[in-house]
Here is the input.
Amino acid sequence: MKITIQDIRDYMHVNNYSYRTVQSYTIAIERICIYCDKEPQQLDELDFKAFFEHLVYDTELCWNSIHNIHGGLSFFYRIFLNNREYKKYVKYPKRSKKLPVVMSYNEVRLILQYVKNLKHNTILKLLYSTGIRLREIQFLTLDCIDFERKTIRIINGKGRKDRYVAISPAMGEQLIEYIEKYNPSVFLFETTNHKNNYSAGGIRHIMSKARKALQLKKRIHTHCFRHTFATHMIEQGCNILTLQRILGHEHLEATLVYLHTQNVDITRAPNPLDNLETSFVLGNGYITTNAQ
Here is the structure.
């Protein structure tokens, strides 16, 4: 039986997979078919193994990209080729344990002061003050804002989950000013003609322009606001379980990473050397140490 990419896409639509997952998985399957020059149903374990060796050794893809491709092909193998042993013979590199890039308070202040346009400034401030994702801010609608309860409802966040985030008093005042000036119709942030929501590329451009103008050395991008929000919240005493709920993390482990990005004054930590009495005996050439 011939399997087409459209068959795979239709199956995922019927089973309520998110748009981004459909795109990611079908692109992964198309990619291996092109590499192996085969139809999807013709792929076997040797093809998968050769393809992943190619990804690891012949491309510069990061772990996350390879992991996403692996997820798409694992799905295809289980559902369409009816084989659940896929992960036993296809290996991919271990995830590097890199910490996220976090901005300092001063770097955030510099960026927000540089971006003068009210719409652009409001977008960046909302990213920083709520920790919401870029795609989530793109699809915020006016009816998600509740000024009375001082909350924003995030609809269909990652994992198709809804959640609430808080609006700070300063953010609430600026949102009211922004809405009165721009009068958005459906989405909170729209293009000039009010026909479409603001694009992800447009928001990234705002951030990129500010970073270059300010000559910031860090590799800062829009998602850094989410990392920075989480880190600054912990530094200001936010409970880790509360933060997990705000960020919409399914697993606590994803939130715990921010315990390693918070600014801790390591110079105040006790040092074992300070608890030793050290006496240097220079005459006979040896050193004696006596613990307190």
Q: What stands out?
A: Residues 19-36 form the longest helix (18 residues). Residues 274 and 292 are 10 Å apart (CA to CA). The two ends are 79 Å apart (CA to CA).
